[in-house]
Amino acid sequence: MSLLVIGTLAYDTIETQAEKRVDVLGGSAMFFSVAAAAFRPVQLVAVVGKDFRPGDLDMLKRRGIDTSGVEHAEGRTFRWSGRYEADWNTRHTIETQLNVFEKFDPKIPAAMRLSKYLFLANASPVVQAKALDQVEHPAFTVLDTMNLWIEIMRPELMALLRRVDGVVLNDEEARMLTGERNLIKAASLVLGMGPRYVILKKGEHGAFLMGNDVHFSLPAYPVKKVVDPTGAGDTFAGGFMGHVAREGNIAPKTLRKAMLYGTVAASYCVEDFGVDALKNTGLGDFDVRYEELLGIVTP
Ligand code: AMP
Q: Does an H or E element contain 258, and which?
């Protein structure tokens, strides 16, 4: 089944306790598509500036990602910079430069409008809604967002939540959105806002999925050395949606397995900066860690 993603392609500046890197390839749609492409061909809609390195687009194409929906606009590519505390879970955004994303008016190519599986990766809810308007009959639409949009575009985000099937949030975003500290209660409140499924990501503590017909919880895969957690959430979503699109259904068993694939995909993401580790992985690598994770959680 076809899988469409809309979101950011970015150059990130990342400061960890060990190292600082400038203009690392990233963006919500970047991580998502590199992960999901291990499962299914991915169609990507995004915008980049004139400074976007051609080799970065080539990498996506080599992975089987359809980049014909990537617009090349005058100006600079979206940029984000952040710094991690020693615990990795605390991240400070230093700067967000929307650049070409500020005026982005997504145009989904005709052939992509029939996509059945749609991921609205982290982007302004206005852009996400414009993309959703153009997809004809999506079977399963999942949304990601972040603290910035919850703060400055809450009404737009609330309207969008009523139109999607699922939402992925980290613990901080769930608390901001609902005002509730207890994550189980927060997840229930999010379900009351419209979506049928909510996935809460808790960084190194794993993730859980809640919906009317399913409740499933997983620890993170035990990565030996974290280098850069940027994009782990988007990568999780890529593994999750990639498996769902491959199966072509949203039965509870599919969704539970998809949680394992999301977790495994994220484990590769954090092992290097940007998509450096992720871009060299294939389904075989994912399957190896899938089995290991299964061994960890099965009595
Ligand atoms: P994650 O670590 O999963 O939250 O994703 C980090 C990625 O999201 C980075 O590559 C950023 O370029 C991108 N990003 C940061 N801020 C935003 C934003 N406001 N909208 C869309 N993407 C963003």
A: helix 252-269
